[in-house]
Each structure stands twice: as structure tokens, then as C-alpha cells.
Amino acid sequence: MTVEIRIADDNDAEEWDSIISKSPHSTIFHTWKWLQIAEKHTKSKLYPIIAMRKGVPVGVFPLFFQKRGPVRMVFSPPPNAVLFYLGPVLVGYDQLIQDKREKIYGEFQESIDNFINNDLKAQYISITFPPTFNDPRPFLWQGYTVELHYEYVVDLSRGWDFLYQSLEKGQRQNMSRARKRGITVELGGKEELEQILDLMDFRYAQQGKVITTSRKYLLEIYETYENIMKVFVAKVNQEIITGSVDFQYKDTHYSWIGTPKPKINISPSPNDLVIGESVRYACEHGFRYYVTMGAAGNKRLHSYYASKFDPSLKIHYAVKKAPFFTGLMETGYKKVIKPMSNLMRHTSL
Fold this sequence. Notes:
Blueprint: E1 3-7, H1 13-22, H2 32-41, E2 45-53, E3 56-68, E4 71-76, E5 89-90, H3 98-119, E6 124-128, H4 137-141, E7 145-155, H5 160-166, H6 169-180, E8 183-188, H7 190-206, H8 215-224, E9 229-236, E10 239-249, E11 252-258, H9 270-284, E12 289-292, E13 312-321, H10 327-345
Parallel strand pairs: 4-6, 11-12
Antiparallel strand pairs: 1-2, 2-3, 3-4, 3-5, 6-13, 7-12, 7-13, 8-9, 9-10, 10-11
Helix pairs in contact: 2-8, 6-9, 7-8
């Protein structure tokens, strides 16, 4: 094996973010500060792995370790952080010929697997790949199971006018009716974000649920990444009734969390107008793609507004490994923690 790994520390932060910024597979979740904040608020131990080959970085892989009772677990991303993916980022991966790509990637994965098994002694492993990294085979060959996840991606290069006209007539009429009823959509800041979180708490309480993601975590993320965060709020008579927390990274506008159902009974749904206005904003500010995170799940429980803008359906992968005696923990994770991340995106429904 020619790939060696080491655990990065704060002295490596600049190099880490340089690798992340240059990779077409990276996400904002991979950036050094986001990982540090996630570690702080998820009761996890972060192991930010840098893989080296002949003294040159070939990839990074953020791992989060947790121990619950006797069970040792590794996640990427960790639960309760509303991170829809994380996983490996390789350097120059797309520029390599397939044979070289598979060789380096295979050695990289084997080194990571050895660390997880021998150093962390993990009994449960859950990894969700970034959307554009589409080769889970080395994990499959090492005994992981592979799951498919889905995402709607709207091509904004067609322009707002085209996208608006692509909506069904009834959807366009609903947006017009919402405006005529005095609903406005505005950009806000930290205060508006907190009001959205209050509405989400209220909506969860109505459903007999509790948000497991730390509010302090969400506020610290906003304060750290304020320059790329966009808080859209819908108002009636200057009162915030719903809203969405988005962020922008590279050429993509991501609709991240929010859109709680308003406390008041109002029709048509102001959330349609919020999403529509955020799509318009992304178009007018030169972004190429629009993604509503967590909106294209394996089960079609709802008709998501983003799906009405004629998006492409993109696949990304998740891998996991768990012995039979962690079955109960796996069931609990699937039924409680993982759905909670999706609900953070769509508490309106």
C-alpha cells in the first residue's frame, strides 16, 4: 500500500480548505470551520484524515466518532447536524485515467478502512458521499452495503423567465394570489433566522416531536458563514409566517432548512412563494444550479415545490457496515435521527 494517512490539526486548516476548494466533489460541509463546529455540537470526535501518496495529498476524509454504551460508531456526516452528505474528497480524481483513478482510490479507501477498523475499532459505520462522487465500489468490495439517495437539481442557466413559465398555470396563479393577499418575501439576518427556528420548534411540538439539532450549532454556522447564507422570510403585515435558510457554494444555490407551516391558516401556501423567490434570486445572481436539499427522497411523501421547476434527478450514494448486534441501533437511527434531518428541511408538510 502506498497511500498513508494522518490526522489533520489546526495547522493544516489552510491546506485542507485548499484541497476542498479545488475539488469538484467537495461541499461546504467539508470546509474546516464547518467540521469544527459540527464536532463541537454533535458530541462527536472529529478525525479529519489527510491521505498522502509519495508525500503529496491525494484526498481528505472527515470522520466523526461516537460511542454509545459499548457500541463504537463512525459517521460521515454525523447525526443531528443537518448535513445531507460528507464522505471522501479526492485530489485530481477526474483528471486521472480510469486505471490510475481506481488504483489510488482503492488504496485510499483501504487505508481509511484500516484506520476505522484497527484504530477506532468501529462496529457501525455510516458514510454518505458528496453528490458528484459516484463510485462506491471500493467500499462495496470491502463488505459495505450501498444505498441510493436522490436529489433534485434545477438548471438555472435557462433563466428565471423560462423556469417561471415552465410552472403549471395553477402554480403561477398561486404565486400571484399570495402577493395580492399581502404576502411578501424578503431577505433577513440572524434575527429572522431565529424566528424561523421558533416556527420550526412550534411545528415540531404540534407533531409531538423535538428538533434534535442544536440551535446553538445552527446559529454558530450562520455567524461563521454569514457571507454565503441567505435567509428568506415570508411576511404578512410585517409578521414573519415562514421562511427558508439557504446557502451558496461555488456555482450552486442550496435551499437547506426551514419552510415551516405557518401558525395561521393561509392559502395559497406562502412556502411556494418563498421557494419561488429563492429560485428567482439564485437565477438573478448568476448561479448555475438550485438544489432543495432532502427533497427527493426514496419515498414520495409530498409534492415538493422544487420538483415543479423541471429539475434533473441526480443520484448519490451512501455506504454502511454494521454487524448484526447493532441492528437495534441501526433501526433507531433510521426511524428517528435520519428522518429528522429531512424534516428540518420540510417541516411544512
